[in-house]
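Box S2. Input/output pair 1.
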Amino acid sequence: MPEQKIPKHLAIIIDGNRRWAKKRGLTSFEGHKKGLENVEKIGDWAKKRGIKILTLYVFSVENWQRKKKEVNYLMKLLSRAFGGKNIKKLLQKGIKMQVIGQKERLPKALQEQIKKAEDLTKNNKEGILNLALSYGGRSEIVQAIKKIVKKKIPVEKIDEDLINQELWTAGLAEPDLIIRTGGEQRLSNFLTWQSIYSEFYFTKKNWPEFSEQDLDEALKDFSLRQRRFGK
């Protein structure tokens, strides 16, 4: 039996928290809370399987359009996620934490928590956890272009490598596999630039019920894919 291929970089579009809650007669807040619990688990599952980079699409630029009460609750949940206990776990496991997205739009207190977490874990070498917060793929490309323009780089020197260097994901391998939970089958403005040769796996499972076994099913499916990169 051939050895299973494991993606170096796994990205997950977290979707279905509210639908999971609605099915159970719970509030959307309870769905988000349950979803955060699964975020805390997925890192361990990925590390155990040898995945080096894990990127989670947690809060998009479009999510700012949700009701203020829901957005405020999500920000409180995120603040809890960046609490000392969780960062201590990352340090013990040797995981580097990064946040990609428009961090300046997040509450000031949360920005400070993020900076502290990134600083404390920046030298960790066992793996990378990227949380995409206030993230949008198009916004990422626009800010990269603005940075290039600001640096007054000559047009003839602008190429794909240069743009890669100005993205929020600069220095990271592109995602090998992107999983989307919740039954939808679209990217929703996630890793627009980086996903051109990613493999996709869609599941109807809502995020709070996505299990370790479901991850293994996705990895098994990925292992059977023929990746030619256009060759």
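Box S3. Input/output pair 2.
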Amino acid sequence: MASLMKKVQTLISANLHAMVDSALKANSMAVFDQYVRDVEDNLENLEDAVATVGGELKTLRRKKADLDQQAADLDRNIDIFLREGKEDLALAAQSKLNSVNRLAQNYDETLQRQEVEFQNLQDARLKLEAKLTTVKQEREELQVLLDLARSKEITVKSIKSLEDLTGTGDADIARVAESIRARLDKASAQSEMLAASLDDQMDQVLEKSALEAQLAERKSRLGLQ
């Protein structure tokens, strides 16, 4: 369980800016795809762990309730035995009551630990699900940027290839080449404007994620979560 929580915390604390930079430099979505696979695998393990610990909690609560009932019955019987002058039975019942109370105390301590672990698992699952949603959104936007970058590279190569045509001396070829270059320049300008808009959107999303993380930490300190 500790190993699973360590992996989950690592995924939750993953730096989105670093992943974006890595993907842009490599011109590949592989880093995002691997992260998504890792998160989905660990989410599945977390859900299984939550179900397991939740089941254990129910069992512990039921056993603790049984012990509490036994203790109440024994306590009542001790009073009855003492009123009837049955000291030996009262002594036996008191001894059993002490054992039941000790066992109930152990169950109380175990229950507290299990409840903390159960809550931690649930919190980790919610945080990891939120991180996965954010990363998937980032991936979609980054894919658009990479597609634009590839399109721009093709445009640049096409423009460079036209440089030779414009200098061939054939007026018709030169005019055609110049017309194509004008269309490519327009397409390139449109790509740059769209890319700039997406850059701004990505910065806003990343900044919002950072702000939300700060607020979440502050809420945790204030005990508001």
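Caption for Box S3: The first helix runs from residue 2 to 12. The two ends are 23 Å apart (CA to CA).
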